[in-house]
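Let us practice reading a record.
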Amino acid sequence: MPDDLKDGRIVIVGASLAGLRAAEALREEGFTGSLTVVGDELHAPYDRPPLSKQVLLGQATAQTTELPMRRDPDAEWRLGVRATGLDLLEKRVLLEDGESLPYDRVLIATGTRARPWPNKEEAALEGVFTLRSLEDGAGLADRLAARPERVLVIGGGFTGSEIASACRELGVQVTVTERGPAPLVGALGGTLSKLAAVMQRNHGVDLRTGVTVTALKGNGAFTGAELSDGSRVDADVCVAALGAIRNVEWLAESGLAAGPRGIACDAGCRAFNMYGIVTDDVFVAGDVSRFPHPLFGYQLLSLEHWGNAVEQAEVAAHNMVNPGPLQRPHLAVPVFWSTQFGLNIKSVGVPPYSDHIVIAQGSLEARRLAMVYGYKGRVTAAVTVDMAKALDYYRHLIESAAPFPPPPGAADRAIAADVTIPSDVPDPSVLSHGPTVALTGHLPDRRLTVV
């Protein structure tokens, strides 16, 4: 490896948002060596959030979601070819076409894919979709534009809820099945998920909670589904919104700490090997990573957030071309947003990392509020509904480890909000779709035994 970190060969695996932003940042940091970006899709990096919003509503086409380049990263793009392995000893990325790419440093940004409907024959029925790729978005948008009689959405997480919202905006009948007690419960806890349930039903969604889909029916084409409570839903389109699978299978023989929850790395985005020893030349960024965060008990966080992918990619790029003393940690506080059923939901921090909540501003009745989450007497998150301007104040409380319940400040009431209630966050292992933030250490309320 060259002495000068600004030179040499860098390979980025994943032509994703994180992969593109890392490539740009490497050049901005003064990297002059050869840069190769490998991607298993044929498309240049594109933006995924519009696929469940503007694209389904016909306000944009899937083809217009390509990410703008902030600068030309002067990279060799190897698109439409899948990485099949990583040889840490020989320092090579193995490709499915039999070729291998030598590297001095490698960045893994392979992201996630949609969790498919588990029964392959049922999943292959015409009219059954997942929503993750550009093709998924285009196909589902075409079906919604043809005005189906009814759409069945399996899973009431953020993606499922946004799809249901788009259906209602288009005037299409929609049924949502959710295994938990309410939509968004894994991400936001019990209280706010009740508001989400009310909003869905108020907008005409046929919401079924506490049930699972046991079978998809159809003869070549999807016609309906059977539920665990014995009922049947007739529909002509089905979307399985069951959360994401992290793309780590290609690393099975690599010796890295890669598993179903992602690839473990340190706060500087350097990957751990399977023995917990940090690597010097393998870096991780985006949805596929699990990283420790001091504000959340150094638990490993797995985030499926747009902003996290960008910020982590920039930290990884910086650390790839700078020596140890100049490397910096990825300490950004997670931020997430969603628009559905006329509500703007914004979150800062990690709501599942909580034991109590308090409504600090507004009210559930008014459909406009700021809810603050705390864990062991410290503010760990806040979620606003149609009150996004308040979020900066709560971000400051999280970053400064402010006491919970929070003091009056941004609050629109004179006294401190002191009526706290349990946050009612379910164990993520019982949800079909995971929360948008997965805590992959011990859960806040219990220590997991390591066998």
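A brief commentary: The longest helix spans residues 306-320.
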